[in-house]
Amino acid sequence: MEVSLILESSKITRAAIVKIMTPSPHRIKSDCVAFPECGGCDYRHITYEEELFAKLQCVNNALKRIGGLSVRINEILHTGEIIRYRNKAVFHSNGVALGFYKAKSHDVIPVDQCLLLKEDINKSIKNLTQSVSKSGNDVTIRTGRNGTNPPHEEELGGLIFKLEGFFQVNTGAALLLFQKAREYTALKKSDTLIDLYCGVGALTLFVGRDAGHALGVEHNKAAVELARKNAICNNLSHIDFINAGVEKWETDITTPDCVIVDPPRKGLTKGAVDKIIELSPKRIVYVSCNPATMARDLKALINYTVTDICAIDMFPRTANIECCCLLLKK
Which CATH architecture has domain 56-81+151-329? Predict the structure, then answer.
């Protein structure tokens, strides 16, 4: 491979590919005309098997180099669906057309369809392009089991969720993640559960239905209101939600059996780590969309041992990867 040096420092070296001398046997022809200019995908040029291998390496490297952990993952759970899986998309406008941002820029690449999106979202963008693009505003389109007509709903494992704000964009892979989290929590009717960063309560309800009492904690007020509605909708009266930051809040639950954390990409704050250690649960289930910050946080939870970890390919054809870890108190 012939490359051109872009940046060189004491910590990092970056180069751009000029010419591929001998293509890898895993390289394939992209099925998208916007790739790689569009920043939505990273792996449309290699086989899906090689993509999964690359993601496996990414997680294991983070666990070893950043977390200093010996635990490894050998398998990534996935649905096998690598197109038409996203139930939500945010489109940007350049004043003429709607599209996605070019990689590492705010230049808009116009699109009239995307291979990652559910077909009814693609149909909607075609209808909206002329009427919305001139406004210069972003457009968010979401679909659920009832299509693109709001209010949106989704079904997971026998539970119905009203969708507003954050919800997993890949419903099939979300079910795999939730099932793994439910397996790790291993709750009984005599157990208590606390779910930090609970959002609209989807994971809290999915897992917490096995517990005697469950509590979701979320700083976003609108998300908490929706979580409470979802609990009522699914007749789960033993699950409560509070509107508070995960670092500072009070509960009458002493030593919960399990704490779930599903933080944003930046991971846990020091205050959140301190709060978890203060709660001193028997088990922690850590859900992450960023292997690097996950590895850092696992190292910081010094009173716990990582006993199992699983990766889930929530975002096929992109470099993102979801993980779910089980930690037991030493």
Answer: 3-Layer(aba) Sandwich (3.40)
